């Protein structure tokens, strides 16, 4: 205290002498003292310091302004407030006019000066020679300082008044001022009469300083909002401490003012305009712009400001409007008048707040009073928009109308008609965006009255000429017409729209195209969807008769288009019986002409196709007799690539597929289809039918894809008639060399279509034809084979089910593949290195079933190995300096496929008794494996030796040959050991050396462990060095080396789990210990790491495993190692299943591990670390209940609560959809496993549930509106899924299963025996009823607080939460419901009342 008192005296002396240059240093000394200061009963020095500062800040001098603007001054005040008792603190603040000083400070910092207006004048701080930034730009050299001073910190606040007046200085001051005010208000918050009198009186005295009228409060609040706007308008975000609480403190100040009936007028006059402009910037109204604050601060400010405006302006204005009988919105008019200069922002913000103030939070329909209120506000906005500039008014009205359309707000047709007339239809063009919003809101604007119909005529006339519309406006006009059709349907006048459609669809001349806005497929689909719901069969017949009467040439084209849409939309029997043939007759009123536009003719054939499919036998005969001659002419003479030809083909196919067996038209249609298939076969190469003019997309690929995907039965019929359609398909599969990639993709698509359809796969004849043709494509003896065709054939054989090819086909395929890979000295022929994996996978698939191809011998496997080795050699040749780990991994995977293929091949030769086929094969294998090999062949030789030994060792038939016929298994094992040992002992760990090492280690694991230890004991140090080097370079091959060492030389690993397990990206440079660095595509290979851990702990006892776990959890690794350590820890916990508590409480056990994991969960910053830690805690709780003490249960709950309340958790939830469910799963596991033990911690459980609920409801969902419909839907689905997780927690507590809370009926001999009918389930429900209503209260309050005045969360989320909330209401007693009602205010009580009504209707438990 003495040091603080002396520092205070020095500061007072300096201020009295006007020694401003030393003030920063003296304030810094005081700050340093206060940082380590502890509160004591004696506070004279603190109070004196407070009075000194406030005294010199209250004057009008330049020094006082510098003090008010200097952030450390306010920091000192903030640190002093908690050190002084509230009553003397209140007296000191009142004596020194604290509120007036605060008001003056806010006024000054709310109006920053521009940098161009500022110079370093006489008020500048003492300048430093090493700080030229404070020089005047005009001065040639810095002014010398009389005495050198300590360098300022780069981020320290400046005492230069000119710098303080800049925007950055004002924000630094605001940061300190707002923080100090918040601390002062928090000291007074929650004080009650039960506390000591001086505390309660002091708190009330401090509050009374802000107890002023609304007019006087504006002197504090308006500058406060201006400073917030200043922070938002900065060009780049610069975080400030406690910035997220600025607007919540602002709202707290308003709550302290003198509440009077006229407050709403003051808010409308002074606060609405700055608040609406700020809220518009935060929420992106009218469009998103860069902000100068962080995303988290934006979300928090938007919630706080929206809540403030809803409570203190919108709700008050609505109440006043209703009290006046719904006649005037005076307060809204005042706010609109004041804010009209920025109407494009403030008007939409006001309307958005009004729309969010819907009183019904339980999802019921809006009340009439609410609709009247919204309509009155909308009309007031339209009236006020007339007094603004034309551009601002247009932007405001458009934004408001789009907002209303998006939210489904009900607005009158007369108001929207005014909007359409004044803003949408202008002399210089049509605002299609505004028209779209209007027709979404209320199509009656254009349909009901004569003025509306006149407006519609103007709009449709503007859309009549497509040349006057750009691409975007044309798309909007098309969407407008689609919505107009829906409006006509709602008005029960779809017939009227059909007539309008015909009028505007018809072109001006017969040779012109249909008008594009009306000829769109979306409109035809919409009308088709509306036909059966909006018309009766009688009405449909009437409109069809009217259409048939429109016979002008231009009308005929439009009529065909409309009739096709109508035929598409009927499916019910009543409509089909009434309209099917009428549609057909209307489509064929005129004779078919080859001069018709292809698009029009195509519609004609579509109508005929549907008429044939739906009609009776007589109707089908009539249809065929009418179209037979025309369809013959089309299919025989029209070009194949025309759109109408394709439609005629589908129509003829429908005739054939129609269920009228034995009819004459069936054979005629079949003949036409088969002859057309011959045209497709003879049309030339596949590329000759590709569209070239851009007007048609029909090709042979189109016909084949339609048959395979939409008409698979047609394929069976064609094959039964020996149609050449199979040849057409095969010609698409057979791609010539040098073909473009698009053609190759089409061929692969045909292959996939063939194998995706069950009728095609089950057609044995088709499959045999295709497989035989595909086999010819990979036959090396064929001169026409090409690389693309071979690739397609291999992919087809890979995709086909394994049981489809017969043995002969499998053997033919193997023979061809082996010839490819073993011929030409293993160059692979038409098979490239990129197809190596596909070929090996296919051979493995074929050899998995009995396959003994011609000339099969073991040397083929050796040739395959040499081919893979040559691919590796070419890969190495590409880069001598830098070897990619991806290439090594890829080649290693290929040798693994070779191993699988060799195992399958050898197993076939050893599965039965050795005869003249198997015996030569095995003898040849022995001869080859025992022969010497060159260095490039070492790797394939090791692979083949390993495969041969692993199969022969376990084969009974081969054991009969062991020792005879040259089959000596022991010599082969010795041979493998002699080949692999040099590769392990070699110091080469790059490229070939690394590949050889990995293959050798895999092979040695199959040999006797003692022999391996004897042979390689001296290689352990080099292997350790190699593994460390590989792991350091983030190469997962290091884990494979480590696994080998852990398997055979675990005693040589001192601390096997004390290694770096980094997951970060590798460095770009090498470590200097290798000839070339190895780049890794995967920083952490999870399976390899887990295999290593399993090898380490395989023979370890429980104490050793716990020791490993303790080492991992007590060493805080950096971010690079955290994920790997957690992964190993999780694996160790899996191995410790069923562990018990240690006998010595000081010994490390799973209870301590649980504590350490909870600590890590609270600090986790990445989703991967968070989820893995949560999973480990869940596993501990689940599989080790004996180790979980009561403290562990409480620690888990407090951990979940802490994480839920953490500021960074919402960002984690937004980044990963699994974060929130993982927290719910932890609590659910506690409820299921430890229900009885939770009764002592139920208050913590309730707090945890409230924290989870707050985290669930606090996520901002306004972003969904700007993220696009797909993203918005995904976000809402994720939100609803999380709500279901939380609701399940509530039902677990309130509706326990019968066995979840049961206890043994056998008590101790001295204790009472419970009643036989005592129900633990009922007891658990009664116990939950004493506490769970607190969660329900939190849910009701959060709906109001987090999302505005009773503006509920999305319906899907509420629906997901309802079962849990209803379960709480089931168990809550009458007294608990009374407590809830008494503890709520009017708004929350209204929300609860609506919820209770739904509970009584839908959720109340009846006991049935």
UniProtKB/TrEMBL annotation:
Descriptive protein name: Nucleolar 27S pre-rRNA processing Urb2/Npa2 C-terminal domain-containing protein
Region (Disordered): 131-155, 1301-1320
Organism annotation: Thermothielavioides terrestris (strain ATCC 38088 / NRRL 8126)
GO biological process annotation, one example: ribosome biogenesis
Matching SUPFAM superfamilies: ARM repeat
Cellular compartments per GO CC: nucleolus
Nucleolar 27S pre-rRNA processing Urb2/Npa2 C-terminal domain sequence ranges: 1174-1407
Superkingdom of the source species: Eukaryota
């Amino acid at each position: 205290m003495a040091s603080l008192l002396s520092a205070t005296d020095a500061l007072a002396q300096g201020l009295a002498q006007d020694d401003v240059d030393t003030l920063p240093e003296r304030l810094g000394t005081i700050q340093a003292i206060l940082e380590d200061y502890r509160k004591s009963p004696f506070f004279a020095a603190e109070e004196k310091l407070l009075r000194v500062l406030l005294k010199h800040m209250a004057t009008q001098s330049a020094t006082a302004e510098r003090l008010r603007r200097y952030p450390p001054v306010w920091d000192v005040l903030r640190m002093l407030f908690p050190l002084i008792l509230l009553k003397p603190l209140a007296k000191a603040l009142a004596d020194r006019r604290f509120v007036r000083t605060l008001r003056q400070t806010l006024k000054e910092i709310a109006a920053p000066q521009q940098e161009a207006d500022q110079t370093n004048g006489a008020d500048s701080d003492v300048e430093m020679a090493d700080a030229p930034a404070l020089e005047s730009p005009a001065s040639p050299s810095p002014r010398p300082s009389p005495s050198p001073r300590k360098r300022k910190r780069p981020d320290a606040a400046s005492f230069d008044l000119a710098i303080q007046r800049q925007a950055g200085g004002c924000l630094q001051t605001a940061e300190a001022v707002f923080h100090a005010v918040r601390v002062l208000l928090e000291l007074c918050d929650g004080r009650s009469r039960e506390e000591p009198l001086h505390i309660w009186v002091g708190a009330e005295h401090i509050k009374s300083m802000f107890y002023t009228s609304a007019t006087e409060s504006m002197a504090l609040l308006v500058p406060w909002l201006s400073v917030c706007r200043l922070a938002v308008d900065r060009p780049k975000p610069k975080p400030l401490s406690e910035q997220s609480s600025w607007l919540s403190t602002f709202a707290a100040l308003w709550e302290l003012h003198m509440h009077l009936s006229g407050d709403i007028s003051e808010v409308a006059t002074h606060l609405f305009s700055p608040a609406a402009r700020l809220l518009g910037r935060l929420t992106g109204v009218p469009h998103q712009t860069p902000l100068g604050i962080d995303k988290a601060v934006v979300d928090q400010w938007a919630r706080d400001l929206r809540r403030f405006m809803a409570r203190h302006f919108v709700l008050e204005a609505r109440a006043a409007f209703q009290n006046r009988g719904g006649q005037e919105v005076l307060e809204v008019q005042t706010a609109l008048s004041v804010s009209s200069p920025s109407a494009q922002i403030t008007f939409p913000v006001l309307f958005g707040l009004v729309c969010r103030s819907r009183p019904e939070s339980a999802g019921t329909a809006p009340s009439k009073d609410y609709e009247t209120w919204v309509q009155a506000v909308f009309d007031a906005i339209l009236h006020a928009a007339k007094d603004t500039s034309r551009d601002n008014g247009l932007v405001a009205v458009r934004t408001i109308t789009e907002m209303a359309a998006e939210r489904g707000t009900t607005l009158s047709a007369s108001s929207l008609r005014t909007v359409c007339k004044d803003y949408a239809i202008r002399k210089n063009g049509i605002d299609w965006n505004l028209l779209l919003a209007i027709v979404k809101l209320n199509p009656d604007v254009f349909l009901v009255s004569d003025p509306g119909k006149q407006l519609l005529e103007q709009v449709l006339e503007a859309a009549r000429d497509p040349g006057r519309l750009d691409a975007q406006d044309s798309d909007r006009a098309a969407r407008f017409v689609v919505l107009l059709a829906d409006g006509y349907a709602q008005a029960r006048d779809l017939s009227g729209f059909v007539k309008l459609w015909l009028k505007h669809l018809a072109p001006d001349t017969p040779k012109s195209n249909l008008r594009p806005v009306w000829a769109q497929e979306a409109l035809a689909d919409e009308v088709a969807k509306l036909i059966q719901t909006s018309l009766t069969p009688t009405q449909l017949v009437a409109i069809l008769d009217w259409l048939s009467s429109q016979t002008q040439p231009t009308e005929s084209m439009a009529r065909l288009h409309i009739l096709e849409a109508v035929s598409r939309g009927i499916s019910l029997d009543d409509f089909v019986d009434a309209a099917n043939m009428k549609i057909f007759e209307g489509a064929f009123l005129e004779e078919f002409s080859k001069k018709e536009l292809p698009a029009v003719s195509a519609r004609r054939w579509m109508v005929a196709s549907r008429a044939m499919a739906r009609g009776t036998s007589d109707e089908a005969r009539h249809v065929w007799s009418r179209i037979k001659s025309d369809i013959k002419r089309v299919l025989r003479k029209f070009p194949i690539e025309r759109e109408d030809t394709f439609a005629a083909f589908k129509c003829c196919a429908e005739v054939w597929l129609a269920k009228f067996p034995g009819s004459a038209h069936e054979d005629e249609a079949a003949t036409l289809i088969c002859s057309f298939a011959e045209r497709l076969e003879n049309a030339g190469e596949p590329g000759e039918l590709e569209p070239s003019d851009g007007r048609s997309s029909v090709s042979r690929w189109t016909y084949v894809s339609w048959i395979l995907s939409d008409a698979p039965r047609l394929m069976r019929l064609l094959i039964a008639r020996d149609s050449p359609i199979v040849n057409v398909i095969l010609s698409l599969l057979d791609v010539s060399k040098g073909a473009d990639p698009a053609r190759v993709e089409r061929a692969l698509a045909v292959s996939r279509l063939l194998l995706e359809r069950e009728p095609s796969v089950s057609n044995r004849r088709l499959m045999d034809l295709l497989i035989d043709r595909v086999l010819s494509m990979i036959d090396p003896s064929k001169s026409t084979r090409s690389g693309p065709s071979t690739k397609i054939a291999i992919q087809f054989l890979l995709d086909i089910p394994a049981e489809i090819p017969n043995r002969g086909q499998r053997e033919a395929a193997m023979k061809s593949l082996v010839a490819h890979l073993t011929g030409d000295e293993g160059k692979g022929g038409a098979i490239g290195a990129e197809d190596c994996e596909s070929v090996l996978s296919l051979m493995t698939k074929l050899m998995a079933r009995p396959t003994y191809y011609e000339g099969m011998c073991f040397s083929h496997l050796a040739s395959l190995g040499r081919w893979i080795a040559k691919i590796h050699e070419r890969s190495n040749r590409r880069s001598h300096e830098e070897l990619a780990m991806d290439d090594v991994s890829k080649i290693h995977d290929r040798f693994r496929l070779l191993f699988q293929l060799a195992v399958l091949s050898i197993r076939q030769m050893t599965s039965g008794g050795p005869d003249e086929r198997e015996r030569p094969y095995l003898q040849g294998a022995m001869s080859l494996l025992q022969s010497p090999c060159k260095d490039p062949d070492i790797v394939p030789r090791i692979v083949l030796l390993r495969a041969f030994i692993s199969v022969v060792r376990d084969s009974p038939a081969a054991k009969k040959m062991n020792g005879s016929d040259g089959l000596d298994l022991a010599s082969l094992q010795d041979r493998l050991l002699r080949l692999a040992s040099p590769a392990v002992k070699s110091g080469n760990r790059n490229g070939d050396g690394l590949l050889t090492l990995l293959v050798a280690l895999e092979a040695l694991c199959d040999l006797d462990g003692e022999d391996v230890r004897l042979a390689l004991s001296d290689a352990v140090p080099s292997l350790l060095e190699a593994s460390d080097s590989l792991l350091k370079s983030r190469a997962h091959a290091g884990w494979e080396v480590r696994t080998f060492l852990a398997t055979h030389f675990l005693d040589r690993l001192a601390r096997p789990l004390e290694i770096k397990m980094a997951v970060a990206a590798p460095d770009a440079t090498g470590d200097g210990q290798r000839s070339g660095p190895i780049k890794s595509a995967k920083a952490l290979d999870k399976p390899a790491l887990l295999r290593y851990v399993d090898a380490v702990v395989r023979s370890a006892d429980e104490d050793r495993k716990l020791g490993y776990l303790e080492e991992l959890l007590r060493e805080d690794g950096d971010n690079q190692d955290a994920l790997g350590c957690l992964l190993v820890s999780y694996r160790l916990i899996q191995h410790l299943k069923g562990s018990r508590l240690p006998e010595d409480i000081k010994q490390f056990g799973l209870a301590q591990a649980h504590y350490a994991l909870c600590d890590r969960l609270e600090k986790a910053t990445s989703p991967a670390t968070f989820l893995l830690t949560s999973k480990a805690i869940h596993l501990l709780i689940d599989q080790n209940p004996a180790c979980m003490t009561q403290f562990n249960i409480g620690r888990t709950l407090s951990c979940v609560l802490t994480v839920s309340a953490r500021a960074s958790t919402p960002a984690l939830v937004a980044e990963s959809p699994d974060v929130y469910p993982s927290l719910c799963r932890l609590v659910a596991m506690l409820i299921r496993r430890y229900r009885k033990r939770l009764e002592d911690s139920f208050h913590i459980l309730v707090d945890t549930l409230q924290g989870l609920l707050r985290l669930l409801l606090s996520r901002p969902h306004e972003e969904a509106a700007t993220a696009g419909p797909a993203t918005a839907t995904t976000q809402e689905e994720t939100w609803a899924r999380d709500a279901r997780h939380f609701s399940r927690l509530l039902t677990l507590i309130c509706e326990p299963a019968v066995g979840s809370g049961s206890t043994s009926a056998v008590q101790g001999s001295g204790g009472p025996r419970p009643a036989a009918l005592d129900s633990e389930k009922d007891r658990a429900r009664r116990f939950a009823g004493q506490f769970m209503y607190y969660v329900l209260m939190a849910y009701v309050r959060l709906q109001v607080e987090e999302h505005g005045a009773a503006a509920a969360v999305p319906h899907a989320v509420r629906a997901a939460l309802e079962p849990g909330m209803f379960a709480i209401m089931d168990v809550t007693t009458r007294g608990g419901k009374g407590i809830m009602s008494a503890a709520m205010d009017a708004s929350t009580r209204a929300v609860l009342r609506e919820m209770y009504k739904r509970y009584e209707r839908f959720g109340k438990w009846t006991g049935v």
